[in-house]
Amino acid sequence: MKKTGRKTKWMLAGVLLAALIVTCYTNPAGRKALMLVTPAQEAQLGLSAFDEIKQSTPRTTDSAQQALVERVGRKISAVVSLPNAQWEYVCFKADDTPNAFCLPSGKIGIYTGILPITQNEAGLATVMAHEVSHAVARHGGERISEGLVMQLGGIGLDVALQKEPETTRQIALTAYGLGAQLGRTLPHSRSQELEADKLGLMYMAKAGYDPHEAIAFWKRFKTWNDQRGGGSTPEFLSTHPVDSRRIAQLESLLPEAMKYYRK
């Protein structure tokens, strides 16, 4: 049994090493990342997810809101490259949900709850460019890939501890999961958000929107967030960076973004 366990552990280690070597991907921001899924697979997952969202979430009945989402969406999507995209722009009715998304398939959803915070077309462009950046940088595929690697790591740890008492194994596996969450998953999620902020700022500028409006939006969002106690969560426990960090980064990137806007 011990020999079999060691063999399995080394096989898992070999799989992980092969994945790290063979499937390295460089995203539009120039960062290397692990990628175990193809763009076509990501797009198919996005199409399926969007169908489910449309079935469960009502659309806005306000034609002006839908027209605004479509107008901004077309401008942003025209300046990005997203393989397998089947662009669609939908405004969903959810007044208490200030949210938005862009799936790898090019399906963009804007919830009406965020429109009072975006306030204007450029504010909405900030949000949509940010969400599109997640899809272009393949952040979803990257999270899937890392999740698979962490799952394999957990299996390897369990196999390595198979001779230990059950309590010891459970403590070790819990510590592994918590360590992976705090040490990798959450920090990486925050870095992806900042990366999407940066790419999004450039995309909105290329689409003809003043990059200064991105800072104005995030200041409004910070006010909205603070009023609801959202800013009280420590950053190391959050999937998103604190709003002040996002604003500071955008301010530092303004000179670069303005070059695209002037063109």
Q: How helix-rich are the residues, as a percent range? A: 55-70%
Structure annotation, total helices: 9
Strand content: 5-15%
Tell the overall outline.
globular
Give the H and E element order.
HEEHHEEEHHHHHH
- Please list the strands of the largest sheet in the order they lie side by side: 3-5-4
Rg calc: 21 Å
Annotation, overall tally of beta strands: 5
Residue-averaged pLDDT: 81
Termini separation:
67 Å
Stretches where pLDDT is under 50 for at least 5 consecutive residues are: 176-184, 232-237
Largest sheet: 3 strands, mixed
Structural class of the secondary structure composition?
mainly alpha
Structure commentary:
This protein has 263 residues and is mostly helical. It is 66% helix and 7% strand. It is built from 9 helices and 5 strands, in the order H-E-E-H-H-E-E-E-H-H-H-H-H-H. It has helices at residues 2-22, 39-56, 63-77, 115-118, 121-136, 139-160, 166-206, 212-227, 243-262; strands spanning 24-26, 32-34, 88-92, 100-102, 107-111. The chain has a 3-stranded mixed sheet with strand order 3-5-4, with helices on both faces. A two-stranded antiparallel sheet has the order 1-2.
